[in-house]
Amino acid sequence: MKKLLLTLAICLSIKSASSQTIGSHYNEVKENYPNGVFTMDDDKTGYHLFYQDKHTRYIYFMDLNLIVYGISIQPLTQGGRQAWIERANDQWVIISNTKWKLYKSDGDILVMRMEKVNDNIVFLIQEDK
Questions:
Q1: Bridge partners of 73?
Q2: Residue 61 vs residues 1, 38, 86: alpha-carbon distances, Å
């Protein structure tokens, strides 16, 4: 039962964290993550919103107009990582073992890549241009 709830939570996270937020304004994202930490990039070229729950760490990347252009998602458990991969395989077009695309109804295309960053597996989502 615990694994089923974790999988359900992660599945819902994939949908809300990706297709509904790329291109969204900071205020829309902040509504979903009221406890998120908002910071400016060190080089003053954009902003970040950091949020972490029990299962996943999220970083939303925003430009100076506070529009989300990228998301980093780090599952904190092996089960969480596997759930992200399974859900991506079900809802996105598989390009490779580490890359997926989502073709949105408005014509936009999102790409998600699974990468290893500092010994952690992260999923990076952005518009495919």
A1: 58, 123
A2: 34, 10, 25
Domain that holds residue 104: 2-127
- Please give the model's pTM, rounded to 2 decimal places: 0.80
pLDDT digits (tens, 9 = 90+) for 26-35: 989 888 888 8
Answer for the pair 27, 33: CB distance below 8 angstroms, yes or no.
no
Handedness of CA 58, 61, 67, 68 (dihedral sign): negative
CB 11 within 8 A of CB 56: no
CA angle, 19 as apex, 71 and 68 as ends, to 5°? Answer: 40
Alpha-carbon distance of 38 to 49, in angstroms, equals: 4
Long-range CB pairs of 52-56 (<8 Å, 24+ gap) are 52/76, 55/6, 55/9, 55/10, 55/13, 55/80, 56/10, 56/13, 56/80
